[in-house]
Amino acid sequence: MKRGDRLFIVNPRNKTPIYEQLVDQLRQQIASGVLCADEMLPSMRQLSIELGINPNTIQKAYRQMEQEGLIYTVSGRGCFVTDDVAAFMQKQKKARLDALVREAARAREMGVTAEEIQAALRDVYKEEKPC
Amino acid sequence: MKRGDRLFIVNPRNKTPIYEQLVDQLRQQIASGVLCADEMLPSMRQLSIELGINPNTIQKAYRQMEQEGLIYTVSGRGCFVTDDVAAFMQKQKKARLDALVREAARAREMGVTAEEIQAALRDVYKEEKPC
Amino acid sequence: MKRGDRLFIVNPRNKTPIYEQLVDQLRQQIASGVLCADEMLPSMRQLSIELGINPNTIQKAYRQMEQEGLIYTVSGRGCFVTDDVAAFMQKQKKARLDALVREAARAREMGVTAEEIQAALRDVYKEEKPC
Amino acid sequence: MKRGDRLFIVNPRNKTPIYEQLVDQLRQQIASGVLCADEMLPSMRQLSIELGINPNTIQKAYRQMEQEGLIYTVSGRGCFVTDDVAAFMQKQKKARLDALVREAARAREMGVTAEEIQAALRDVYKEEKPC
DNA sequence: GTGGTCTAGACCACG
DNA sequence: GTGGTCTAGACCACC
User: Fold this and answer.
1) DSSP letters of D40-76?
2) How many angstroms separate the first and last alpha carbons of chain B?
3) In this predicted model, what pLDDT tens digit does every residue of C23-82 receive, in sequence order?
4) How many CB atoms lie within 10 A of CB C65?
5) B87, C5, C110, D101: which has the fewest Cβ within 10 Å?
6) A76-105 residues near strand E (Cβ < 7 Å)
């Protein structure tokens, strides 16, 4: 990852908790290839200063990331992206597809036709695969 | 609607607030045709007893339903499904489609291919439109 | 569970973190049958006062309990012992047996004979099964 | 001890501190007979390089080993395995047996029966005593 | 009343 | 320097 990038951007006014915003963003950063396996994350203190957020909140986010297997933490050294990014990607893809199917089923229940769904998704299909 | 059915089923363990579960279910009941225009809803008191839920919670749900235009209240009579079900359906279909597109875009960002999405949705397309 | 009992006893001078002491004790309370399925735990505030411990620490313990499937939490209502105590017991028994075998293997590696192990465990075998 | 073996293998990701991992491994190497009385240990500097670990950490480990009576230091010469291996073995065996009994008692508290424990340990009993 | 999030600090062990 | 634990408070949503 190149220097000078801001890994995380947080909106305190958002209703979703800050720590969850952080987890979501990391999840996407890994999936999109911005972060590589075993890459070190910014230290809790540093990130807390950069974002103007309390260290405890950062720690809460990092702990959940670890619990989800996104990162591993070495006490006294720092936190690092999981070395098994592939496994994470697999789980993540399945989770996204499941959510999508659930959402589609809900739409059908609400009276949306298959044709309307296909039409709406046409633009999504066209987009280039990122990276 | 036939008698004996339970209009609302609530799961207190769910993380989504009870009052929101109620609104969600009403939304779906209307969209799927279970409830018709101007049909009367169970009274707050009755529902509170049936579900074993605090009356304040029921009241909050009904208030939000009214605020969203799902129902209208007649003082001293009760609450009734909006008479303009068609308008609601339009809004609802758009909302569901938007959510679906958002989910699909998120899946694409996570590395899911258009083909995988289409394959996953195939079953949903095949299902008969309810009602 | 009878009233007047003190569910948790914490030793702040112990090197194992307070929140982990709490989790350990709950694990044992459930396994030994002191707590029953769906029984409510003391509220975080109340326990925090009883034990003279910061609410945040209690919360940390409760969150880990939930993550381990020991309890489920209903926001605004309280925390409750898991309704599937049997499943927990199964996992717990296996975990304890695994740890025991590991410890025994380590003893063997250290030169302890099978006879010595059997002799040492004789007293444990004799103890009555609790409850 | 034959040359070419790596006496210590350290896993920085492990939650147990590195210096403690080193002490644990030395303890086991002596008990299992890999290291003999008065045998010389690798120098701190050399070990630090081999394992890619901070010299301070190695020093801390060696200091604790000495404090526990596992090794003795000869200024300007190096560190050596204690000459009274027998005494160490006695202490070690007792420590292992105590830990084992503690684990077994904990298992009993968790509802494991004496029969289950005996069955689980059967394989351990059968294994040939190493050395 | 309940749990959930967040802030602003402190002290510790490890490397 | 790093993460881990803990305290003492605050405010919020839900019931």
Assistant:
1) BPPPHHHHHHHHT--HHHHHHHHHHHHHTTSEEEETT
2) 13
3) 999 999 999 899 999 999 999 999 999 999 999 999 999 999 999 999 999 999 999 999
4) 23
5) C5
6) 76-77
Chains that touch C (3 or more CB pairs under 8 A): B, D
CA-nearest of C99, A126, B82, B4 to D120 is C99
Q: How far apart are CA D119 and CA D127, in angstroms?
A: 14
- The single-letter DSSP state of residue A33 is T
Q: Which nucleotides of F are covered by protein (CB under 7 A)?
A: 1-10, 13-15
From first to last of its 131 residues, chain B has per-residue pLDDT tens of: 555 568 899 999 999 999 999 999 999 999 888 999 999 999 999 999 999 999 999 999 999 999 999 999 999 999 999 999 999 999 999 999 999 999 999 999 888 999 999 999 998 887 665 54
CA A59 and chain centroid, separation: 16
Scan for tokens 């008969």, then name that residue. B128
Report the nucleotide nearest the CA of residue A59, measured to C1': F3
**Which amino acid, residue B93?**
K
Beta carbons of C10 and C60 less than 8 angstroms apart: no
What predicted TM-score, i.e. pTM, was given to this entire model?
A: 0.91
